[in-house]
């Protein structure tokens, strides 16, 4: 199928839609598939790449194709050579133009390049979803009819190692109203396959964005020394002050927090309390227990919260005594939460931003089963983080009504919150 296609940069969305519809209709009339080796998308990709290469060569030589200026005896066009490149629509055979003195170095499809950059991004995206190198190779074979070796896939994913190191050591904001420290259990082979914690530190910026500050592999015996090293690293990256650190009573962590940021308030994670409550209960009771717990952590003060906890205990003590005991034991660490403004409480109790992130991490980890070492696990978790934010910073909007929370933080932590200084 052939058709004349003009430049699309100047077209509005309606014109582009009509052009696309015309091409699809014409392809169907001529019995041309939309995808596949002889498909419309493959043909368009070939046309676009070859046109771009010809334009590059014209820029290199200083004159266009068929221009008489090429007959002046200087460097000129010298035919084409055939080359197959792997693209997002499958293998595409293109004619790469050449010049007589061999000085032309195309940028759109570089010399010795066999894959377009979009293919590498596709491999990284599939890896972030937990697919193994073998599964990705099979995916390319099944969907694109292309052979991509496991070694090639491994080399593509290894290219993010330097990028990951830069991300893990990038400068951070000066002040974070809240940071959360969460743990994800990953199976890692260390002689034998063991469950190993990986810690994700998530900050809420003064602009109301979720900022994933970093990911650290636990060493199995975490204590104050371990956590002081992690938090000092975060501080050395520019974090001078944190108002509230939300965590789950990890060994040595509260002491390390107050050592690193003297004014920081340590708060037991309400999200973890709720999550741990469900561990003692059958799944069919989770929704009802969540409804019964909400009046506890949304209470006006500690007295009211304790009354609501009493109602919760009266209802569930007989069936799930351990769940009730969990809340009773955590009560002294929980009640400082009730002193915060309701808008601050909403930020601390907003489970969606954390749980949606954890769900993506867990999905990728479960798909892989286990990892050969910490580095492989960290790479997988980083690729998930990378996929969440096209800028590669791992940021996203935390809450829509952030301004109300920002005002509450500015009043509660007077003089410490200054959005313009970050």
What would you call the structural class? Answer: alpha/beta
List the secondary-structure elements in sequence, H or E.
Answer: HHEEHHHHEEEHEHEHHHHHHHEH
The count of strands amounts to 8
Major beta sheet summary: 6 strands, mixed
- Fraction of residues in β-strands: 15-25%
Ranges where pLDDT stays below 50 over 5 or more residues in a row are 1-9
Q: How far from one another are the termini?
A: 56 Å
Radius of gyration, CA atoms, in whole angstroms: 28 Å
Strands side by side in the biggest sheet:
7-6-3-4-5-8
In round numbers, the mean pLDDT is 78
- The number of helical runs is 16
- What form results from the Cα inertia axes? elongated
- The residue fraction in helices comes out at 40-55%
Would you mind describing this structure in some detail?
This protein is of the alpha/beta class. The chain has a domain at 173-416. Helices cover 48% and strands 17% of the residues. It is built from 16 helices and 8 strands. It has helices at 13-29, 40-61, 117-128, 133-144, 150-158, 160-168, 224-236, 253-260, 270-278, 286-297, 302-316, 321-334, 342-349, 352-368, 374-388, 402-412, and strands at residues 77-87, 90-99, 175-190, 192-204, 209-217, 241-247, 265-268, 395-397. The strands form 2 sheets. It has a 6-stranded mixed beta sheet with strand order 7-6-3-4-5-8, sandwiched between helices. The chain has a two-stranded antiparallel ribbon with strand order 1-2. A hairpin with a 1-residue loop joins strand 3 and strand 4. The relative contact order is 0.10.
